[in-house]
Amino acid sequence: MRCDRCSFLVLAACHVVSASQRFRRAPDLWAETAVDPALTQELQLTRTAGDAWYTVPLRIGGNTSRVIVDTASPWLWSYSGNDKTTDDGEEPEKFSISYLSADLGGNVVSETVALHADGSPGKGRCKAGKATHGDTFWLKQYKKTGVQGVLGLACGTADSGAGAEAAKGLQTGLACASSALDNAGGGGGSSKFTLRLTPEGGTLSFGATPMDLLRGLVRMPPAMRCGNWRAPLRVRLGSKDFGFADATLDSAAPGIIGLSERVASLAEGLGAQIDVREGKMVFVMPCSRASQLPAVELRLGDRREAVVLLSGDQLLVPDDDAPKDKQGKQCRLIFMGWDSPQWLLGMPFFHAVRGVVFDPSSQSVSIAPF
Fold it and tell me: What total of structural domains would you count in the chain?
């Protein structure tokens, strides 16, 4: 029905709809998150050497452990120096997980956990893992970077497969964080968190979304189940499209991974050469070409998209494993290939946005692009 042929009431309704349409085109300001910033607990992150993980010091069982912040792992665990039985002499409950292709096992223990290394803002209790044995991978990481464990912040265990059964005695890292916040605030601790990463460091905050991220924040469709954090993604280079698929957001991954044939085609479009090293494709070019590279577009979302641009400087990292006979400083693309059709967005993605909000209650993420 046309508005010029309807009654005054219908005409008024038409104006309301028009205003609503204009509001939907406005920046997405989340009114429900615009609450007292004091309700947010912020932790400072440090970037390590070696694999350059982002770590946070947690007070776990009375000891400070520097643990990796990992949005693609659900568990909280730290190292232990022994494999003793419980106080009543019974054999402790065991857990076993696989992480970064490394096997790890130990005891399930009830630990006090504080989000800050100094014990503030309080501490709750949760069933965490004390790692007592594993392969040489973790020993190398400890010696090289000082990493003492992992704070897993995945939405849940739905994507853990057989690992969820092997580690069923453990609470998730989000549950442990919520327990610590509950203790600090007398209840109502939030497991909603925001992650902001830079090449130098970053912040992890629980509770209300930081006010400076609200403008332009784009909410992704909710996931079907609470496992890995996901978002629909389309990758573009100029007018060429490199596929539409789900993407997993992984704060502990060093690069961006996609289906091998798509990534190889993208690398060709950027003018990179392919090296095969230990059965894996590496895409290389002189570092001096960074300023000449076109930007790669990451378009995340469904009806409303968050457009994230990766510039030339963000697309290349030093190729420390380049052959000695290469002339000039060599770099490699941040992209890697695998057999899965889905994408995995690691640290380079987090560097290219203002922040990402993770909400377990809605099983969704929201992205704040620049």
Answer: 2
* pLDDT tens track for 59-93: 998 889 999 999 999 999 998 765 555 555 678 89
Q: Which of 119, 126, 116 is nearest to 57 (CA)?
A: 116
pLDDT digits (tens, 9 = 90+) for 99-137: 766 788 999 999 999 888 887 777 889 999 998 887 787
Same domain, 202 and 281: no
362 and 225 inside one domain: yes
Tell me the CATH number at 57: 2.40.70.10
Are the beta carbons of 195 and 350 closer than 8 angstroms?
yes
Residue 212 sits at the vertex; the CA angle it makes with 185 and 49, to the nearest 5 degrees, is 80
Domain assignment present for 4: no
Biggest CA pair distance of the chain? 84
Q: What amino acid occupies position 285?
A: M
Q: Do residues 143 and 227 both lie within one domain? A: no
- The two tokens of residue 208 are 């209300």
